[in-house]
Amino acid sequence: MSTKYTELIDKIAIENNATKDEIIEVITSHENDNYLFDKANEVRQRIYGKDVYLRGLIEFTNHCKNNCLYCGIRGENRNVERYRLTKSEILECCETGYKLGFRTFVLQGGEDLFYTDDMLCDIISAIKTKHPDCAITLSLGERSSDSYKMLHEAGADRYLLRHETANPEHYLKLHPEGMSLKTRIDCLWELREIGFQVGAGFMVGSPYQTVENLAEDLLFLKEFNPHMVGIGPFIPHKDTPFKDFEQGSLRDTLVMVALTRLLLPYVLLPSTTALGTINHQGRELGLKAGANVVMPNLSPTRYRKHYALYDNKICTGDEAAECRACLERRVVSAGFEIITTRGDSKVQ
Ligand code: SAH
Asked: What is the CA(79)–ligand 1 centre distance, in A?
């Protein structure tokens, strides 16, 4: 092992910063990934100890007006059986989740115009009234700043909006005409301005992505300094234009997770379902490479398989309690422990 590589990792860990060239060097050098993963784990343990935060994911609609080229629930995919959860079904998911120790509920869905701001605000305030000790995270895509304001005032605490790629040309290759990186980034800044804890993030190994693009993703994250970062491998979906592209690699995804921990030591970093889909130990490896959040699925089992963003998604048959128990076992086997508090970000 060359000392040059370990010195570079040490330097990034101490300075929480890196140049584009340094990031590219770490990604392209396969010299000693474990040194990087162990360093990221060390940084995470210094700040968060062995704590792993739980978020209950409620995939409440798979209707979507958009046509992102990678996504299985894109509007033009006629092979999807579409569903929407009612307010009472969503509240039931939260009730089940609350009993299982969840104190954060993540409402995620396609961009579904059926749910007006008023309906969403009504759902959010109903959850908050029933569970005032819980945080609500939204992941509903791009909306107007007025809409974001209303949702925040209704009680939503956090918002996940992956930037998907920080390179504008690459963004155009992943999205249909009419969608732009600028709009996405503007949304992120607005969300932050309104007072949400904000999550950005990207897919690793998405079509046409270069090593430079990955470095740009990390430099953007460093600049934006989000509270949360979601990183998962791209996985093709059979009914999308990207069906014949290769999935992102486990190794590259873990490297990006670890580098994110070194650049943003305080960030909340989930070990994603997509990581668990490409490798049966993927989520455990993610935790050991610096991740500190898991997001078990709370969606009603009968709808699970219809929220297929990519092929072979795991956990589509399990009840909420099974998902929770399975993830707890995985977290413990990786040497960590689940914490059942709101788990707010320590980002300063
Ligand atoms: N409509 C919301 C939620 C999108 S789904 C929004 O626009 O933010 C959440 C994330 O799943 C996306 O941001 C994307 O990064 C990821 N995703 C979608 N399709 C995927 C695929 N084929 N492989 C891996 N991740 C995918």
From this structure: 18
